[in-house]
């Protein structure tokens, strides 16, 4: 039974870490005395039947004697209507929370419950592409490393980040690299479905459950059984539905709207939100127990401005998928590098797609919307379009204005260090020298700092 906690991917040189909370059962009395079993999954069943997670070949043990389930409070042992009962530290219980060192009695057997914590370093991946994701920045390589580590598990993942940062791609990559890759990947946008329909969308409904329910319908959790359900913009889910979602996460069971039958589901849950859910909890807008249950493995998707070195890779990847053979000039790439990208990767993709559709230069589609600041080289005053001046000549004026302003900003930002400026712009140093001479822009010392 795994629980990865306490770690967001850090933007540091030292390796990121996760704390892997686990627990085990040790047989201290019975024929299998001394045997250890690491508890895995959200529920763990013990009995003599072969379908149990832990099989005890003892006639005093029922076919399914008890189960252990993890919830927001800890580990809960629950008797499954056994013949001889389940005992916790000598007292018979129907259900009770386990403590470190608790002894569970079943028939003539006894098991000791031991939680433990393993600290694991998540080393940055050596890859620059993982699934559909590309990136060579430390932030992305650390995320790649975390995905590679947790994708094979069933750990619930909470992805936070600004709009357009690729949270959906992280979710798809987790599914792609998991043992569930051949099973369904079902997406529910909790912010796009009307409030009156979201319950049916998630849990399904029975015929006649409400006006318009002319037939029974499976919800996302049923459709995703065996695979992964991705709950996008989970922060938009209403408070009245949050307890029902919590039940699915903890018990892996649900009831359709208007139904009485309990339906078991086997799935992995990945959630994403642009909101700070911890802040939402403090405001009373999101349940703390649900947040705890979702925040098993937290991932924060970085904004594009935090990983500008990935922009060339992203551009090449997008062009390769959308228009093989198309190349961009250094000026255009410089313009795309200089933009702040408030809409992140999604905005970059939209600009590339729009430029290809219009036959335009993508660099011209990120014309600045405001004054230049320290983070970007935005053009502040445009060029008046003149009658009887060709498209080519007008475009050349824009390009010259952009180049001059961008280079001035670049050199100032690098404090006159041309080598650093060339690295920041992902440009050849000789080509940068050439452009600086062209526009009469002087730089300082070219030595490395």
Distance between the termini: 50 Å
| pLDDT averaged residue by residue | 84
Largest sheet: 7 strands, antiparallel
Secondary-structure-based class equals: alpha+beta
Assembly type: single chain
Strand content: 15-25%
- Mass-distribution shape: elongated
Question: How much helix is in the residues?
Answer: 25-40%
Low-confidence stretches: 5-13, 368-382, 445-449
Structure description:
The model is unreliable at 5-13, 368-382 and 445-449 (pLDDT under 50). The chain has helices at residues 138-150, 167-176, 198-203, 220-223, 242-251, 277-282, 288-294, 311-322, 330-338, 344-358, 391-413, 418-425, 429-439, and strands at residues 3-5, 16-29, 36-39, 43-47, 54-55, 66-70, 75-79, 86-88, 91-93, 95-97, 103-106, 109-122, 129-130, 133-134, 157-160, 185-189, 228-232, 253-254, 263-264, 268-273, 297-300. The radius of gyration is 28 Å and the shape is elongated. The chain is of the alpha+beta class and 449 residues long. Strands 1, 2, 3, 8, 9, 11 and 12 form a seven-stranded antiparallel β-sheet that branches.
Structure at a glance:
Helix content is 30%, strand content 22%. The chain has helices at residues 138-150, 167-176, 198-203, 220-223, 242-251, 277-282, 288-294, 311-322, 330-338, 344-358, 391-413, 418-425, 429-439; strands at 3-5, 16-29, 36-39, 43-47, 54-55, 66-70, 75-79, 86-88, 91-93, 95-97, 103-106, 109-122, 129-130, 133-134, 157-160, 185-189, 228-232, 253-254, 263-264, 268-273, 297-300.
Blueprint of the fold:
Elements: E1 3-5, E2 16-29, E3 36-39, E4 43-47, E5 54-55, E6 66-70, E7 75-79, E8 86-88, E9 91-93, E10 95-97, E11 103-106, E12 109-122, E13 129-130, E14 133-134, H1 138-150, E15 157-160, H2 167-176, E16 185-189, H3 198-203, H4 220-223, E17 228-232, H5 242-251, E18 253-254, E19 263-264, E20 268-273, H6 277-282, H7 288-294, E21 297-300, H8 311-322, H9 330-338, H10 344-358, H11 391-413, H12 418-425, H13 429-439
Parallel strand pairs: 4-5, 15-20, 15-21, 16-17, 17-20
Antiparallel strand pairs: 1-2, 2-3, 2-12, 4-6, 6-7, 7-10, 8-9, 8-11, 11-12, 13-14, 18-19
Helix pairs in contact: 5-7, 8-10, 9-11
